[in-house]
Amino acid sequence: MSATYLMPTYLRQPISFTRGSGSWLYTRDETPYLDALTGIAVCGLGHCHPQVTDAIQQQAATLVHTSNLFGIDWQERAGEALCNAAQMDSVFFANSGAEANEAALKLARLYAHQQGFKRPKVIVMEQSFHGRTLLSLSATANPKAREGFYTLDDDFIRVPFGDIAAIEQAAHDYEDICAVFVEPIQGEGGLNTASNGFSYLEQIQAVCNTHNWLFMLDEVQTGNGRTGKYFAYQHSSARPDVLTTAKGLGNGFPVGACMVRGRANGLFGAGSHGSTYGGTPLASRVVHSVYDVLANSDIMKNAVTEGQFIRDGMVDAFGEYGVSSRGAGMMIGIALPEDMDCSNLVDRARDEQKLIINVTGAHVIRLLPPLNMSRDESSQVVERLVNLLKPSF
Ligand SMILES: Cc1ncc(COP(=O)(O)O)c(C=O)c1O
């Protein structure tokens, strides 16, 4: 396969897959690889889930696209299902996580505009990742992703993740804040959880309510069952005003969603936002089929038990050497000792163990397996990781 005509925006691994089924990816010669990454938290139901494949096939043969100039029955149905699952009032369908976040950040501006702000600011976190459109990139912390793009830094205030006092301090220091935008667990930034877990979200919501700011959650990665609840915020009693998601929403079909509730509902009117492809009959039917599988199965429960099994297995094997685990459900971080050289772990896992993983934040193995992984498969994840790491201890 030649990559000559592709812009080199990705450091690609020297392998490609031609087929996927459940937790497994296959090369052209049918070598199976155990997929503990699912396209970075995308194929939560596993590769080519039969119900989702069926929905794609049927809708592709019926009607792919009309336009948002017309009613779209499947968009109505997907919207109702998703808003009920998320406890939100209404939804805008986009095509990616960055676009869903762009919608959220535009909503924050509209909200501020209604209150007479000229150049409102949104509080975001250190180590955050929100996407690569210009505004979502400006909200993102990663210096490598931002370099050279003249990000809109005046529009954001950055505080340490998990530090509620820093948000309170910002409220004291600035007059023109309109929202807080945060990931419940930081995915790209190192699988970081707040020290007080999901109660951090309740604390943020309380500050937002005090100051009349929007409380906005980026659940692009944590949503759609990934952490064992439909949305990660449901581990707490907090409720966002704005909620974005993508990734697992289409199980590999490109789609994103920005949902609103209460004071954020009704900010967008006709013409104030849009997308040619947002919520096509095909995309919407896929969203509905993923919802149907998640809502009518034990898959989220499975994500909790198998996620814990993998975490426990790794800590049992290497806890005495300082290895610890973090995350929730099937969003798993295995933190290795900081002085350990992890630079070739991804390649060795793939080539020696036929296991697909990711390493983030320099020394954290990031696992995002299918939510419906079987016990045999999660045992294999642990076994292959133990084989991989054993020589290092
Ligand atoms: C939390 C979060 N927000 C936004 C994005 C961007 O999503 P997309 O790549 O679909 O634009 C990502 C992608 O990794 C993400 O993890």
From TrEMBL:
It catalyses: N(2)-acetyl-L-ornithine + 2-oxoglutarate = N-acetyl-L-glutamate 5-semialdehyde + L-glutamate. Pfam families: Aminotran_3. Its main location: cytoplasm. Binds 1 pyridoxal phosphate per subunit. The modification N6-(pyridoxal phosphate)lysine is found at K247. One of its GO terms (cellular component) is cytoplasm. InterPro entries: AcOrn/SuccOrn_fam, Aminotrans_3, Aminotrans_3_PPA_site, Class-III_PLP-dep_AT, PyrdxlP-dep_Trfase, PyrdxlP-dep_Trfase_major, PyrdxlP-dep_Trfase_small. Belongs to the class-III pyridoxal-phosphate-dependent aminotransferase family. ArgD subfamily. This is Acetylornithine aminotransferase. It comes from Psychrobacter arcticus (strain DSM 17307 / VKM B-2377 / 273-4). The lineage of its organism: Bacteria, Pseudomonadati, Pseudomonadota, Gammaproteobacteria, Moraxellales.
